[in-house]
């Protein structure tokens, strides 16, 4: 059995599954490509094997800090009296993300309270006074102290709100960009989910759920095409049975989608 490793060989597999080579599959190449793209989109959205959890690091630039300090103006107009308007300021405190990112879980804390770089920091003093010799220090005491410091930091400082929408590809960080970031020095580290590129990770095309789903989508397209000739008698008295093919494909698609959703990734927060 030939294992599909490209979109072209994957399409050939789907057509063979429907009987191509024995009967004619009345679906155009463009229609088949559309259904395969639809299958890949659904697979990368709902199946754990279609994405990866990863961490990305970005060096903040001077241009980004400058832009984040500025605002854009947008105008609101009354729907009844167009002469009544209002001006609003919109922040530019965003960083573009790669288009393959579908969800941002978190941005790691921007504060430096846990780095120990400041000699007056509580963690620095704890390391200096109590952890000089691990053999004489209780790990329980250390864990309780760290948990308490984390709790105080959460209450007094909190986490910086972030916003992300997949179709914008913008990560908004609602922070004090004048004081929290230094261009060319500070990094932003995010935890996110990224779609796997099937042209790079070609084994995706051999996933059994994806193969069945794409085949059923093409089968439904085939049924929809044939249904246009449902009541037309062809030469030799042959009639098209597109409605049956369409109905069978609909049932298959529903079952496969339920199976794929059972493999849905753990919580993915498009933070907003």
Describe this structure in words.
It is a single chain. With 272 residues, the chain is an alpha+beta fold. Among the domains are: 7-51 and 198-262, no CATH class; 117-159, no CATH class. 40% of the residues lie in helices and 18% in strands. It is built from eight helices and eight strands; from the N terminus they run ααβαββββααββαβαα. It has helices at 7-17, 29-46, 62-69, 122-130, 139-156, 177-180, 208-227, 242-262, and strands at residues 51-59, 71-77, 85-91, 94-96, 101-107, 162-165, 170-173, 187-195. The strands form three sheets. Strands 1-8-5 form a three-stranded antiparallel β-sheet, with no helix packed on it. A three-stranded antiparallel β-sheet has the order 4-7-6, with no helix packed on it. β6 and β7 (170-173) form a beta hairpin. The longest helix has 21 residues, at 242-262. Residues 112-117 and 268-272 have low confidence and may be disordered.
Provide key terms for this protein.
272 residues, alpha+beta, three-stranded antiparallel sheet, disordered C terminus
């Amino acid at each position: 059995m030939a294992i599909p490793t490209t979109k072209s060989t994957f399409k050939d597999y789907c057509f063979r599954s429907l009987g191509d080579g024995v009967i004619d599959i009345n679906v155009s190449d463009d229609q088949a490509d559309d259904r395969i793209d639809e299958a890949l989109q659904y697979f990368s959205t709902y199946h754990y094997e279609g994405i990866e959890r990863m961490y990305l690091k970005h060096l903040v630039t001077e241009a980004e800090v400058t832009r984040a300090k500025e605002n854009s103006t947008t105008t609101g107009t009354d729907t009844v009296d167009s002469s009544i308007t209002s001006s609003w300021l919109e922040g530019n405190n965003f960083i573009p993300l790669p288009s393959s990112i579908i969800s941002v879980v978190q941005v790691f804390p921007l504060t430096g309270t846990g780095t120990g770089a400041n000699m007056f920091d509580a963690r620095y003093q704890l390391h200096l006074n109590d952890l000089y010799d691990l053999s004489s220090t209780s790990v329980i005491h250390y864990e309780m102290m760290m948990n308490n410091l984390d709790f105080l930091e959460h209450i007094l400082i909190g986490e910086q709100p972030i916003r992300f929408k997949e179709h914008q590809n913008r990560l908004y960080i609602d922070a004090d960009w004048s004081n929290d970031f230094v261009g060319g020095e500070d990094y932003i580290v995010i935890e996110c989910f990224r779609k796997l590129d099937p042209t790079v990770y070609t084994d995706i095309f051999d996933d059994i759920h994806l193969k069945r789903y794409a085949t059923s989508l093409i089968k439904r397209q085939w049924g929809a095409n044939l249904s246009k000739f449902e009541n037309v008698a062809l030469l030799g008295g042959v009639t098209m049975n597109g409605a049956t093919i369409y109905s069978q494909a609909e049932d298959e698609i529903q079952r496969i989608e339920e199976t794929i959703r059972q493999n849905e990734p753990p919580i993915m927060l498009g933070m907003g």
